[in-house]
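Posting for a labmate who doesn't have an account.
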Amino acid sequence: MAGWNQTALASTSHAEFLLVGFPGVQESRFLLFIPFFCLYLLIITANSILIHTVRVEESLHSPMYVLITLLLTANLCTSSTFVPRMLLGFLFDLSHISLAGCLLQMFFLYFFIMLDCNILLLMALDRYVAICNPLRYTDIMTGKYLAKLSLAAVVRSISFVSPVVILASKVRFCHSNVIKHFVCEHMALMSLSCGDISRNKIVGLAMRVITIIFDLGFLLTSYCMIIHTALKIASGKTWHKALHTCGTHLMVILTTYLSRLLSSIVYRMGKSISEDVHNLISMTYLLLPCVINPIIYGIRTKEIREHLLKLLKKRELPSTMKPQNFPSTLRLPPTGV
């Protein structure tokens, strides 16, 4: 009888799961709503302001600024795939999610993370052409070519993420239906499986290793060549501008990849660390670039900073000009007869 129960249990698979982001603070989880809501509000506001600035200013419609806009849009989408649902879970205990919804969330989360990395590759290519081949920059980096590169980035993201999600959809989950994570992360879901998931682990690890090795190799090679070319530029002003722009992009790249690397190391090496700390580090890896990127580009990119200040002054101008809205010719009444 016991053997029959075990066989029946193994043949079933959960179709609904419970996302428990921070198991150690479940009783006071509503207190987590305020800091994470403020963080999400900051992400939406900062990224949206910079996207709007680039969109309305025609002088910022060059490939570099278009790619910055795409990167910030990917940041918005990455945070929006899981933060709203997580906040609802903190506030109203709405933590249930179907298997289909979980796989869909996993797909879009990894898709936008991958797209973020692909856009960084396009930005490196754009800066390489601009600094190493400036005379042909406008001929090469046309709007049509940029659209093709963006489409290639989307296709690459889908092709890398789809195998992981498809393999996850074929796994049976018969142990527990409680995902001790705030999002349907791949390994968090696989930990609930009751079959052989070695293929899932190999594919997931292979995709991560390939992207990190190839992407970092391409980025390091590109920026080394860019810096080498910039150092040979005679004009001090041009040399400084080139290095400043590259420095800005490198700060964003380091923020993205170091946070990912830290999360992977802690997940695989820190077995003694509590699940709450693991999840907090995962949260940092997912949201840190979304917070830092608009700040870096808003402060360090001179053109964006100047146009942003100009837009803010335009909004303030009507209120300061109101008392001065007098007629052009003012007639005074006669003072005497």
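Reply:
Got it, the structure tokens are right above this. Residues 262 and 285 are 8 Å apart (CA to CA).
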